[in-house]
Amino acid sequence: MIKIKNLKKSFGELEVLKDMNVEVKPQEVVCVIGPSGSGKSTFLRCINRLEEPTGGSIYIEGNDITDPGNNINEMRKNLGMVFQQFNLFPHMTVLQNITTAPKRLNGKSQAEADKLGKQLLEKVGLADKADVYPDNLSGGQKQRAAIARALAMEPSIMLFDEPTSALDPEMVGDVLEVMKSLAKEGMTMIIVTHEMGFAREVADRVIFMDGGYIVEEGNPQDLFDNPQEKRTQDFLSKVL
Amino acid sequence: MITHTVTKTIKEETVIESLQIMIDALPVLLQGMWLTVLITVISLAIALVIGLVLGIFSITQNKILRGISTFYVDAIRGTPILVQILFIYFGLPAATDLSLNAFTAGIIAISINAGAYLVEIFRAGINSIDKGQMEAGRTLGFSYGETMRLIILPQAVKRMIPAIVNQFIVSIKDTSILSVIGIAELTMSGQSIYANNFRAFEILFMVGVLYFVIVYSLTLFARWLERRLDVA
């Protein structure tokens, strides 16, 4: 479903990603962990070309997203993204945040978009917040609204960039619950996270990145309980 | 006692006479005021388009577009508006076949002058919106233009309103300089009246009052607009 070959990314002299090769199968949940500065957010942001890769190719269902001939806007519709800082649109209500894109880009009528929006709000536990502005939501509610907004484009892949890192501890659980239920429904997900407990429970595969490389990857039990690489062991001993 | 009454009567007469002169001047001054408003509205509409387009130029990755925008802003901000007006009305026809009537030249001058300051206001306003907003719009599948129009500008414009209104007020008052190229706007109308009746005090006082009326109406409108946008 996603096939990343020899992905490289430099910011000027600084080489952030050095030759990344990753494959993600349909319905697979992949968690990316690693110390800050390891390139994991940059890696995620290259997948929908928020960062322009300096080398390599990224195939999304067979189409190379790095190919200038492919319509990036069309391809992004299939790649939902959730940000650490939510990035909800403050001048729109929660429902408008969700319905604007499907209405304008997927040709949905106002009624269809509203219906879809309300279903999604129900799903993330915010049914009563449809007509509220984002400023009046708590951090956890904002992030759940942002997940609903991304889902409204009916993407087949969801990218999460440290979705709980900006949240107060008591808000984290609600957001993780929503992500768990998405995983159960079979959504293909790539999640950059510091929530090791969540990664262990939900991920089909965990990737440990450091210094722009994939140091180690495997199923969560193996990687967390029996890491092979020294750097993985060091990192896990600090965070677990 | 008697002298006192006499002075008082003379004072009263002076005031009444002054008022009479102001009232007599009003029809001509209102014509001038109308022209001032007309020039202002047309010029500022054009200036807004200049400000928006070149403001977006100034934040693109394209070096040529950025260069055009920077050059324009620096050139206009670096020269006096009086020189700009004279240059367009007298300077351009002297060097080219292009000859503009005073009204058109005046509108062009005010437009490009206000436009330069609006470019900076638009640039700062758009830049003040968090980068994550553009990223969120683009990841949903919106193009750069759509994201600008639907997500960035509605937020930016709301923040820019006080600065835009400020520039509008400056530009309204700048139109008075157009009197030097013979446009019969408010200031010029006043000058032509007191050139005949020599009552500069009364006439210029009325000219000032009428400018204040225009500017204060705009101020009230802006306050109302800000309150309305705050609700949304």
From TrEMBL, chain A:
SMART domains the record matches: AAA (SM00382)
Membrane-topology annotation of the record: Peripheral membrane protein
Keywords associated with the record: Amino-acid transport, ATP-binding, Cell membrane, Membrane, Nucleotide-binding, Transport
Protein name in the entry: Polar amino acid transport system ATP-binding protein
PANTHER family referenced in this protein's UniProt entry, alphabetically: AMINO ACID IMPORT ATP-BINDING PROTEIN, GLUTAMATE_ASPARTATE IMPORT ATP-BINDING PROTEIN GLTL
UniProt key word Membrane: yes
Compartment(s): Cell membrane
UniProtKB/TrEMBL annotation, chain B:
Coiled coil: none
CDD domains given in the database record: TM_PBP2 (cd06261)
InterPro entries xrefs: AA_ABC_transptr_permease_3TM, ArtM/GltK/GlnP/TcyL/YhdX-like, MetI-like, MetI-like_sf
Primary location: membrane
Residue ranges constituting the ABC transmembrane type-1 domain according to the UniProt record: 33-222
PROSITE patterns given in the database record: ABC_TM1 (PS50928)
Membrane disposition: Multi-pass membrane protein
Molecular function via GO: transmembrane transporter activity
Gene3D superfamilies: MetI-like (1.10.3720.10)
GO biological process, one term: amino acid transport
Annotated signal sequence range: none
Alphabetized UniProt keyword annotations: Amino-acid transport, Cell membrane, Membrane, Transmembrane, Transmembrane helix, Transport
UniProt-listed Pfam families: BPD_transp_1
Domain of life: Bacteria
Family, similarity comment: Belongs to the binding-protein-dependent transport system permease family.
Protein name, as recorded: Polar amino acid transport system permease protein/polar amino acid transport system substrate-binding protein
Protein's organism: Salipaludibacillus aurantiacus
